[in-house]
Amino acid sequence: MLTYDLSKRGKAPLYDYLYQCIREDIITGAIRSGERLPSKRTLARHLNIGVITVTNAYAQLLTEGYITSVEKKGYFAADVSSYRIPKSSAPAPAKDKTEPDYFADFKANRISLKSFPMTAWTRLMRETLSISKRELWQTIPWNGLFILRRAIADYLRTNRAMNVDPEQIIIGAGTEYLYSRLLQLFGPATTFAIEDPGYKKFGEISQSFGNPWKYVPIDDAGLCIDALEESGADVVHVSPANHFPTGIVMPVGRRIELFRWVNRISKRYIIEDDYDSEFRYTGKFILPLYAQDTQNRVIYLNTFSKTLVPSLRISYMVLPKKLLERYKKTQSFYSCTVSSFEQYTLALFLKRGYFERHINRMKKYYRMQRTAILDAIRRSPLNDFSLVTERKAGTHFLLTVNTALSKECIKKRAKKTGLHLSFFDDYRHAPCCEKNVQLVINYAGIPKEKIDGAVSRLAEIFR
């Protein structure tokens, strides 16, 4: 006879607790498959409960398939052996996988989070939350809030000499997301070209979408146009204002060659990635290809992740009007991936001049940071066997070290000294035959008080 201590049910309804007890016995095999259960009246008398309680418990077990009913014979336990889960030890509690605690991270291309105008941003966010605009609570347009697209268009006109209609701007959560939309827009029959060396992740994204891509070499003037022509590519991804990791600025002669290439065949396009172009420490800003394009063949990409904070995943692209119509027909069913509150706050941040003032402050800060780390290298033993190559832009430079040490040996020594290093070869597709080691020194996220110590540890690696 089934016997259960119903006083342990707590706040659970009596029928529900009885149902749970019988179900557990069936699952664990305490009640064998095909075994006949007591009649409702018999079990009720045995447990000193009402028949309706047993009726409700049996009904739930019957509904879920733990028991079967045979007319005039009663209720029988069903075969649920395939549902039994073998007992095992409890899994270990999940650990928070935090990043290693380096003394100095020269690899991460981070920004100085301390310099972010948190007070102003928080105030604007509170203002946004207090606004009772319907557009903040409704479904976001596929291309983003108009107020942000208009603010970006105004910024591009005054700071990048780009005449852009807000309708041409599409907001997305990161340039990688927008790049994936472009891959889908052009389709798998389109071949993409990517600079070598360059940002490898775009090649990986292309591969995941099944789009063919080609690595095209660069020289001191940027992308080699002859090699681009030979690659058979239809679309090319370039960073003409500040190539990563070399920092090369594409001169006007090479830009003219690139425009000749793209205008030669109607299906060709240029994807201009203007990432990190705001941080130039001498002279005027570099005019984007988009502003020089007369045939509407340039797609412009940029992000706020580097200029503000990485967690603010707001990027945008500007499409030529003809390509925009194609995008509307084939891609506009995708929802905008950035919340309306962040978009509205960023729009206020741009419109009220906070962004421009922030860029000016950061340029001054990074200029001082750059000077401090270059001075530290000149004072250190590194100066005797290394060469700095930098273009007075961005937040990194190249350090060529005359050493016989292997890359793996350098990595191991760096780890022991608490440094995280980035190698130029990491961004190269074609094999390198150079004997010296080239490091990509990202200095934006190195605290000022750690610069001398970081450079001293770097020099120790090569001793």
From TrEMBL:
Domain of life: Bacteria
HTH gntR-type domain: residues covered: 12-80
Keywords for the protein's UniProt record, in alphabetical order: Aminotransferase, DNA-binding, Pyridoxal phosphate, Transcription, Transcription regulation, Transferase
Residues of the signal peptide: none
UniProt cross-references to InterPro entries, sorted A to Z: Aminotransferase_I/II_large (IPR004839), HTH_trans_reg/aminotransferase (IPR051446), PyrdxlP-dep_Trfase (IPR015424), PyrdxlP-dep_Trfase_major (IPR015421), Tscrpt_reg_HTH_GntR (IPR000524), WH-like_DNA-bd_sf (IPR036388), WH_DNA-bd_sf (IPR036390)
Pfam families attached to this UniProt entry: Aminotran_1_2 (PF00155), GntR (PF00392)
Single Gene Ontology MF annotation: transaminase activity
Family statement drawn from the similarity comment of this UniProt entry: In the C-terminal section; belongs to the class-I pyridoxal-phosphate-dependent aminotransferase family.
Protein name, as recorded: GntR family transcriptional regulator / MocR family aminotransferase
